[in-house]
Amino acid sequence: MQICTRCILPETFPGITFNEAGVCNHCQRFETFFATEKQKLKYQLKLAGMIETSGDRIPQILMAYSGGKDSTYTMWLLKQKYGASIKAFTFDNGFISPMATENIKRVCDRLDIEHFNVTYSQDMLDKLFRYGAENDMYPMKTMERASTICTICSGFFKSAAMMKGRIQA
């Protein structure tokens, strides 16, 4: 089975293609997005603006971490450039590969970031995913951004973040 030489997405991932170097279309698009220093600076300024609201204290961040390139770059930037104190969590939706789990652990260890998993009953998730696949649950505008199943997962990890944040406060 072919996997991306950069991000480890497999050939079974929907809509994936590979170039001659074995790099997937998602990584290629990511390179294009961050190709210019202007775009990198814009992203960094956006983060800096959010962090400025913390004043002189070290920003404390609870971050949803998928282990993908976007969240890895964001976590690295927050920790290395802005000195944020980060707690990262991953929502285990039952689709996380062992290799992705290992990559998440490796990155968090390297950056010295506390990490935990949020899990729900797989039976409950399966029922929700099945219901979502068989029914129109969300407006069409929502479906332009992500599938019903992805939107269900997003709701779970957002609520998990809010609950964890309230418990820690």
Automatic annotation (TrEMBL):
Pfam families for the chain: QueC
Stretches that traverse the bilayer: none
PANTHER family reported in the protein's UniProt record: EXSB FAMILY PROTEIN, NAD_GMP SYNTHASE DOMAIN-CONTAINING PROTEIN
Name assigned to this protein: tRNA(Ile)-lysidine/2-thiocytidine synthase N-terminal domain-containing protein
Taxonomic lineage from the root: unclassified sequences, metagenomes, ecological metagenomes
